[in-house]
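Figure 2 data, in text form.
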Amino acid sequence: MKRRDFFVKSGLTLAGMAVAPAFVSSCKSGPRLKISLAEWSLHRAFNDKMMDNFELPVKAKRDFGITAVEYVSSFFSYFVTDQKYLKELKRITDYHGITNVLIMVDGEGDIGAASIPDRLKTVENHLKWIDAAQILGCHSVRVNAGGTGTREEHAANAVTGLRALCTYAQPKGINVIVENHGGLSSDARWLSNVIKAVKMPNIGTLPDFGNFKISETETYDRYKGMNELMPFAKGVSAKSYDFDRDGNEITTDFARMIQIVKKSGYRGYIGVEYEGTNYTEDEGIMLTKKLLERLI
């Protein structure tokens, strides 16, 4: 569907849209749990211009023994519509036997914006990332469910925006997944209800072990939140910060988290996402990977 036709036909209302009978997701086949590397684990290297996307798959395999990667939009937003760039990145990952898992999309507006023009603009801003994900062979784009208004108003607007994105992404074989990423999205009950209300086969969640801070004064229980978000998961982020001498993460009970993931029946990638400062990025990635391997 061309973008112009998409907007004419959807109008961002999409009420009563029929749900397609099936949607093939890469999360439901193959080894049950696999490890991927979230590009954000190397955000300091990227921000300091010491790395770029072409180097990421090589480094993931060579330095960490990881053969699947998750991209972050801010590290190649200038090239997102550059077909030559995207095809070269796909060529590099294919050559090295790397799976491109997903793109984490930030900074493109509030999908649950109260204003229809703002919501329309946000949806439009995300379409190029869905196109890029298709070229790279990713199964998903991760979006945020930001917005304004009451809980109910914000939820209704987020449902409308997400449904529009899913409509565009579905024929391209791309999932639209939402992370608990601050604000109401970190309220797992609220986010779960939004996901259910979208009623599209390619909607889902990206539960993150650590992002359950709703506001400066309110934090959602992370283990309760993971239990609530995992039934919709098409990806998982293993957020890590610090470790004890035995290699256990000290801010989150990883063993408990992995049991929640396993109990849900989830099949797919768990992304290593190191954000700490007490180790180098390479050290933090390896510590997280080894812990996940031991628990998986």
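Caption note: The first strand starts at residue 33 and ends at 38.
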